[in-house]
What does this fold into?
Amino acid sequence: MFGLFKKDPVKKLEKEYQQLMEEAMHVQRSGDLKAYARKIEESEKILAQIQQLKSK
It folds into this structure.
C-alpha cells in the first residue's frame, strides 16, 4: 500500500534525459559544439542509469 506513493526513478531519469537532449539540440544549433558534446555525454550517462534500472 505504501509503495503506491513512491515515485518511479526511471520516469524521473527519462524526463531528465529528454530535457538534456532538447538542451543539446538548442546548443548544437547555436554552434557551440563543445557544449553540445558535454550535454550528450551527460545524457548518455543518464541513459545508462535508465537501462540499468530497467534491467533489474
